[in-house]
């Protein structure tokens, strides 16, 4: 009897060991997906506050989250935050639109023409070896300090990722479907609108998500070179004034804008997939 009871107890213990991870997974999955970002943000803020408090860092070196929040409220109240934020947001959106408008048609043309791809691809790939921070002074020198050079720099940053995603998406469209569309008498425009773009859209939207976030980087780089307004200019101003809390305000704003644009593109992707 003892020998029979021992295997039963062993089997029961093993079943309990298997059930515990399942229960933990059920508890983890019971939380809505939107809960995790605020929880991770709260944890990061607590860790930040603990590091500042325990390290006793001065404000000009690492300000506390409370001090940054107070400076944020002050910047909103006196209009500084919105005056700089709206300029960066406008530059990034216009630059993204320009880069998207050039990259998508060119990516489609490269995907459908092997000779054109062989002629242009080496130069397009080589152009990515030049850092934007090195090109930006030339763009400002050629086009001045107005809005257009900043938009152009943003477009240069977002151009290549969208181009590559368009090229890959169009090229991955099954050739059988294109041949079927041709059999049914579809012209080039109908094939593009009804076959190629719908099937390439998931890959293209991946490039859109990346391009939207990179457009913020392009705007800041352009403002670093020559601007008196914008979040990049605000970073320069706050650094010159040793106003580190204001620097953190600008950085947090840039991250928030990039997250919102990425989230909007992801929501659009999810809506289309449904």
Fold blueprint:
Elements: H1 2-30, H2 36-55, H3 65-77, H4 80-112, H5 114-127, H6 132-143, H7 147-171, H8 175-183, H9 188-225, H10 231-240, H11 244-273
Helix pairs in contact: 3-11, 4-5, 4-7, 4-9, 4-10, 6-7, 6-9, 7-9, 9-10, 9-11, 10-11
3D architecture notes:
The structure is a single chain. The chain is an all-alpha fold and 274 residues long. The protein has one domain: MetI-like (MetI-like fold, Orthogonal Bundle). It is built from eleven helices and no strands. It has helices at residues 2-30, 36-55, 65-77, 80-112, 114-127, 132-143, 147-171, 175-183, 188-225, 231-240, 244-273. The chain starts with a helix and ends with a helix. Residues 1-5 and 11-15 have low confidence and may be disordered.
């Amino acid at each position: 009897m003892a020998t029979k009871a021992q295997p039963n107890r062993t089997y029961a213990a093993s079943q309990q060991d298997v059930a515990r991870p399942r229960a933990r997974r059920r508890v983890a999955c019971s939380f809505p997906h939107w809960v995790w970002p605020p929880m991770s943000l709260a944890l990061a803020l607590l860790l930040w506050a603990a590091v500042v408090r325990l390290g006793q860092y001065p404000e000009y070196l690492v300000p506390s989250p409370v001090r940054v929040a107070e400076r944020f409220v002050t910047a909103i109240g006196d209009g500084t935050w919105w005056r700089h934020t709206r300029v960066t947001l406008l530059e990034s959106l216009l630059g993204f639109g320009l880069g998207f408008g050039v990259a998508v048609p060119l990516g489609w043309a490269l995907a459908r023409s092997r000779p054109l791809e062989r002629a242009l691809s080496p130069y397009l790939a080589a152009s990515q070896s030049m850092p934007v921070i090195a090109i930006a002074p030339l763009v400002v020198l050629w086009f001045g300090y107005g809005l257009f050079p900043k938009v152009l720099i943003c477009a240069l940053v977002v151009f290549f990722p969208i181009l590559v995603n368009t090229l890959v998406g169009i090229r991955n469209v099954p050739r059988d479907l294109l041949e079927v569309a041709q059999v049914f008498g579809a012209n080039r425009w109908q094939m593009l609108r009804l076959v190629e773009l719908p099937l390439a859209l998931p890959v293209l939207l991946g490039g859109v998500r990346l391009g939207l976030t990179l457009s913020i980087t392009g705007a800041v780089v352009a403002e670093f070179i020559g601007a008196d307004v914008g979040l990049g200019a605000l970073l320069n101003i706050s650094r010159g004034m040793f106003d580190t809390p204001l620097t953190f305000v600008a950085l947090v704003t840039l991250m928030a804008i990039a997250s919102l644009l990425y989230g909007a593109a992801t929501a659009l992707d999810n809506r289309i997939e449904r």
